[in-house]
Every structure is written in structure tokens, then in C-alpha cells.
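2024-03-11 09:14:02 DEBUG pipeline.ingest accepted 1 chain
2024-03-11 09:14:02 DEBUG pipeline.ingest length=155
2024-03-11 09:14:03 DEBUG pipeline.predict start
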Amino acid sequence: MGDLHRRLGGRPIDDFGEAVAWLNHFWCSPWNRLRVGPGYRALALAAEDYPALVMVSPKDSGGTKPFFGVVLAAWFDGYSEGGAKPPRSAQTRRLVEELQGYSEGLSVSLQPGGLLLEGQATSVRALAGKGDLEALLLSLAALAQAYGGCPAPPD
């Protein structure tokens, strides 16, 4: 993930407990996806003022499959409070397709706490090799804006 955290004003997270604390602070959705294996790394940063957590667990270990995930914390009036999802538009569909096109196997989902992008650990290698990880984060922020979201309030 290189120096991405420096370019986007963030910091590396080497401790799993710190990642959980970040999720507890910024993510208002249930969480059952975090997989930690050998080589687990994370970055806390901001993409267009949206708090983001990039996580990679590159090796399979004891049933823990390789994992790549990005959590972009956003607040959607109504939906983040238990209401209906914001409607999809031509713009949101285009942005989702663009995000999924960055690397094979990526999926994007809208959650009450923001956006979740997931894939295999090999996805991050492909993205980093092409220099697309920063562009992917900015596209996620654009998708949150297209859905009418604002950066998640810290409290």
C-alpha cells in the first residue's frame, strides 16, 4: 500500500485492536467481514474528507481467506438512521461499474455506515501495481457523494 497514507493524510494501523476501534468510531453498520491472517495490514486515511479504512490480509491461515477491503464511512440522511436506501441513479450505476472494473473480483455495497468495497488480497496487488488504489478511493468518495452521503460524523 506504499505511501498512500501520506498522500491522503492518514496513518498505518498495525494493530488489529486499532482497526476495531476505528470501526467502532466511524462505522455505524454491523460488521462481520474482518478477517485477520498473517501479514494483516491496514491504513486509516481520508478520501475527499470521508474517513476510510483500507485492510489487507494477504495470506490464507487456518480458514482465514486472503482479504482486501475498504470501508468508506459516510452518512446518508434517513438510511443511516434505519430508513430506506438512497435510490440508484444512472450516475451511481456507472460509478459502481467503474469501481468493479478496477480489478477482477471487486464488489461494492451500500451500507447504512457508508460504502464497503471487498475483494481478494490479490486485488490490492493488481491495484497497487497499476497505481490505481488512490483513484479507487477517490471513486468511492464520488459514489458516496452521488448517493447524497456526507463524510461520517465523528460522534
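2024-03-11 09:14:41 DEBUG pipeline.report Strands lie at 11-13, 41-47, 50-57, 67-75, 107-111, 114-119, 150-151.
2024-03-11 09:14:41 DEBUG pipeline.predict end
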